[in-house]
Automatic annotation (TrEMBL), chains A, B:
Family to which this protein belongs: Belongs to the class-II aminoacyl-tRNA synthetase family. Type 2 subfamily.
Region (Aspartate): 198-201
Pfam families with a match to the protein in the record: tRNA-synt_2, tRNA_anti-codon
Protein known as: Aspartate--tRNA(Asp/Asn) ligase
Species whose genome carries this gene: Myceligenerans pegani
SUPFAM superfamilies from the UniProt entry: Class II aaRS and biotin synthetases, Nucleic acid-binding proteins
Top-level taxon in the UniProt lineage: Bacteria
Record-annotated site: Important for tRNA non-discrimination: P90
Entry keyword annotation includes Chaperone: no
Annotated positions binding ATP: R219, A220, E221, R227, H228, L229, E362, G410, L411, E412, R413
Record domain Aminoacyl-transfer RNA synthetases class-II family profile: where: 153-439
Subunit structure: Homodimer.
Length: 439, 439
């Protein structure tokens, strides 16, 4: 972990020890830690200093005859001290007889007390001071879980022959992106910000067969809700040569299991700090048809969508009947799905698409797409649009595309569900919404 | 590679074989491939069909009594045939007595002949038809190298305790982004697209110490050159607790070596198809000071920057004197660096920043940043701006930041240099520039 050239280039000093590794230091040895003054607690005869770095916390004991000033909390410091066993210290080892060097000017008092076990601040305070409030170990844990999830997402797909792609965020027409698009002044003419890489990931299935992208998408959401952001991170997947949406769902199962596995493997400390349970993904996700789902929850058969209370009831049913936190609902009415959705072959009122529910909340939407050029022309015309407006997208289909499908996972929504955050704003590093554009 | 649930759900059919694996098929066995008709060549007694999939090419032989129609080139097909040894076939095995099933309508004739060994098309043709021209194996190789480089970038940093972050692309003020920013209509008020994650990655060093981001950045470049795009992929790194820019350069060395290693490990086929050489990264990158570099190339000592011909001469010198494709130039004049740049402690005319040259071309810019809040206030005031305009950025420094630094690598520029592409547009999947907004 520290075998980089940058560490090797510092041979003359005692090597830095991460706070979490202080517990393993040889008693009596000289240890150097670097980090933030997490907590400074002056008692009559001694001052306890807790130093925080990216790994965790370490305790430093300062006695009057050490002749050391302890800078205010959040100041960055280097501490060189003697590792000393103390059963009361975190990890059983603390640093004594320290030399403390401040690495910057004394820090201003943080807007919230970061050393308290939990961060009890109102959401606007948390967000206004994001660069500081993210330092709280419990808050930081949420992002560690997000990052570990993305790592698991990629490693699952890399192992399955997928190619990572990067598609443009500037698009030429609002048509490509649907409603609620942001308009940009693009060298004096209008352009739009992509609401999703949908069209591009499909075109790239024509090149690489299997593609994924992790990147920002932009939605001018006029709704001020706990689950909408103007900008969020979309984990997009698309693959060719599928039989139908069930193959896509099979892949989604593996990807979700990979994301959960990423958390377990790379963010175990964060899981512990938050006291959450990483979801267990069944080998096969139970599937119910949309029509059966309506019947199950007692909704009228002509309902075009599932209401939140329906989704909750379905989640309870999946847990009760299948012991699963996950449930896929397939066959959503074509009328409610975008034009590129593949219909259900035996009954075109329904679609070869699905939603994945996690504990009764919608987590992922996906499905099979159309792949025959004539189907696209008909579908675009059927919604009253001119296929010529889609010419650059349609060339991929005219020149041969396989049956394909895919899905998109909203990172913030995923992280909120896993961590139990009530609002997606809590798990975006610097959220953007109707009202917020800073920090 | 094919052990996913999605593959397991297809037990009743002969499992799909990737084209590259046909050579390993048991002669006489029944093999199923899926892909595009890459080449259809009808001779008097036989038609040769080359099928292309994500792995490579496989040959299918169709005889009149097979009773098979061969759809036009680029049509997607499934072919079930008998593996038959033939020393003349690619890989020594071809499929005979095939059943060919078209998976879509007959494909339109491609704008360029994709089956030719090299793609001889003018750049505008290549770009106008990107969804199709990327299918050419040699062209696709460039992106495979890009994707493998990113994979090596991440794995190097993941192993060194870095956290991947995702920072906002909407920013509140043009100040944060400098000149050439794109303006967006953000719910009726102006916002701007981030030109770099610089401010955010620094703030996040205060949280995670070591961060990286792979994502789009936006520059309203009015210049129509072979190395500027309006949107490109930036590989951004920032880390805390450095001594100075030399620690940053040490990390950059490891990251560049990791990217080269990613290519060797994950894109060997692409390297072979392009006939290129993956650069060898020396254990230590030679470093020359800016002032010495000027003297070496015979430029006046008051020059504020290196001209392209100077960089070329320095590249030749590094190869001749150090046997290195890479050379770092450190100490660029403070006057030419952004305000957050850390000065050289013993002579503040110079900076603790560097450019990394690769074969005489600038590839990466990086360095140490200021970390004391009072230094920021002074630096912002010195360029005639009000520090209050930077309030949300500055709170990270007021609340304690470590000495830190970082760098940014432009993915398209990197890929162009590695593959020898003359224009960055050739290696962006769907480039965006002054004139181009589609496909």
């Amino acid at each position: 972990m520290n075998s980089l050239s940058l560490e090797k280039s510092q041979p003359t000093r005692v090597e830095r020890t991460l706070c979490d590794d202080v517990s393993a230091a040889e008693p009596g040895s000289v240890v150097r830690v670097q980090g933030w003054v997490h907590r400074r607690r002056a008692l009559s005869a001694v001052t306890f200093v807790v130093v925080r770095d990216r790994s965790g916390l370490a305790q430093v004991v300062v006695r009057p005859d050490d002749g050391q000033d302890v800078p205010p909390e959040e100041t960055t410091v280097e501490v060189v001290g003697t590792a000393t066993a103390n059963p009361q210290a975190p990890g059983g080892v603390e640093l004594t007889a320290p030399t403390i060097t401040a690495l910057t000017e004394p820090a201003a008092t943080p807007p919230v007390e970061l050393w308290r076990p939990s961060l009890n601040a109102a959401l606007p305070t948390m967000l206004d001071h994001a660069p500081v409030t993210w330092r709280h170990p419990a808050r930081r844990a949420a992002w560690e879980i997000a990052a570990a999830s993305v790592r698991g997402f990629r490693s699952t797909l890399d192992a399955a022959g997928f190619t990572e792609v990067q598609t443009p965020k500037f698009v030429a027409s609002a048509t490509e992106s649907g409603a609620n698009v942001f308009e940009v002044d693009y060298f004096g003419r209008p352009a739009y910000l992509a609401q999703s890489p949908q069209f591009y990931k499909q075109q790239l299935v024509g090149v690489f067969e299997r593609v994924y992208e992790v990147g920002p998408v932009f939605r001018a959401e006029p709704h001020d809700t706990v689950r909408h952001l103007a900008e969020y991170v979309s984990l997009d997947v698309e693959l060719g040569f599928v039989r139908d949406h069930r193959d896509v769902l099979g892949l989604l199962r593996d990807v979700v299991a990979g994301m959960a596995g990423g958390i377990t493997e790379h963010a175990a400390g964060a899981v512990e700090r938050l006291g959450i349970e990483v979801p267990r993904v069944p080998d096969r996700i139970p599937v119910i048809h949309f029509a059966d789902a309506l019947a199950l929850v007692g909704a009228p058969p002509e309902e075009p969508d599932l209401a939140p209370e329906h989704e909750r009831a379905l989640g309870e049913w999946a847990l009760r009947e299948h012991g699963s936190d996950f449930l896929a609902v397939e066959g959503y009415p074509m009328a409610k799905r975008p034009f590129y959705t593949h219909p259900q072959p035996d009954d075109p009122r329904w679609s070869n698409s699905f939603d994945l529910l996690f504990r009764g909340l919608e987590l992922v939407t996906g499905g099979q797409r159309l792949h025959r050029p004539s189907d696209y022309v008909a579908a675009i015309a059927a919604q009253g649009e001119d296929p010529a407006a889609y010419a650059s997208y349609l060339q991929a289909f005219e020149h041969g595309m396989p049956p394909h499908g895919g899905f998109a996972i909203g990172l913030e929504r995923w992280t909120a569900r896993i961590t139990g955050a009530a609002n997606v704003r809590e798990v975006a590093l610097f959220p953007r919404d109707l009202h917020r554009l800073t920090p």
